[in-house]
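Input record (one chain):
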Amino acid sequence: MKFSNLILKNIFRNKSRSILVVIGIAIGVAAVVGLGLVTDTLSESTQNALTAGAADFSVINGTNTGNNGGSGSGGGFGNEQFVNQTSVGEIQQISGVGSAVGVLRTMTNLNNTNSTSSTSNSGSGSGFGGNFRSMTSIIGIDSSSLSMDNIAITNGTVFSNSNQVIIGQTAAQSLNKTVGDTIIISNQTFKVVGIYETGNFMDDRGIVMSLSELQNLTGNTGQVSLILVKATNGTNANTLATTIQQKYPNELSTSTSLSGNNRMNNGLQVISSGAWAVSLLAIIIGGIVVIVTMMKAVSERTREIGVLRAIGWSQKRILTMIISESLVLSLIAIVVGLAIAVGIVELITTTHLLIGIVPSFSALLLLKGIGVALLLGIIGGIYPAYRASRLSPTEALRYE
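The corresponding structure, as predicted from the sequence alone:
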């Protein structure tokens, strides 16, 4: 009988024992591949969820770097130096920039907006400016770009024309306004069409309108307070910010949330480490199952091994046979493990238990699964094979 045929015969002669080995190895493969399908895209999915639509950093006038306030994206109020709106289009053309949006920010005392005696930060007598404690922030931005400034509508809709505004949750409560009400800003009446939240106290006590309308109200036509920039996928935001600042030296400055980025990266590393820890645990468990099962198999075949040694089989040949059987079982376990992993992940995905995560299968992940199966097969077979090869023929033949 051929050596290869003998190996296959030995495997299928004791089906229950072979099934246990396959299950043990398949557990390791399924853990690595199944978790890999999720964790390989977990970092990207988490990052996209945390920064979905929001700007990565802001660009402001280079001579006004010390006057930032407002949202986490940057910005300023009061007597600030503006940025020419043409810079928005220029920055949009820079490689690595996904989106660039101009934003105009100012403040006004709504209690005095009907009075032409209010101070104006633009010098146009528009009714903007005054005591900070009684001020309401006014933000001008295109309605299609609200997410860039973390503005999320919680009630109503976005503004669609120059006579409409949306109002922050905090401002709506303090001013006793809701969707459908009107509000007077700089002697002009606007309809409140939506309520929004940003998670930022200053912005949530403000009002948002179209950029062009706020520019007209303040007399700052063609000017913005800051430019919100979002990098394309795969582009480092900090590097891109440095590139823009170098392109406009002493003219523009950038503001990035380095601490926030670092905290997010640390969180993603913890998630990846945890996933690998679970995979490693599954591999160890699978390895133990394989070793114990193979040891039991060798113990049951002691007399058989003794006969093979008595008829002249060398230790090397015995060793090769046991390890080969283990590897063949590993190949079977690869198919079983991959089927289990893909099946479970597909089931979880279809039932929408993995919200925001789209499992991604890759060639590298396939190689990981195959590598784990072969590793478990070799590790699980080496020690039992070594013990079997060391048995003396007389001792093995006396074994009951």
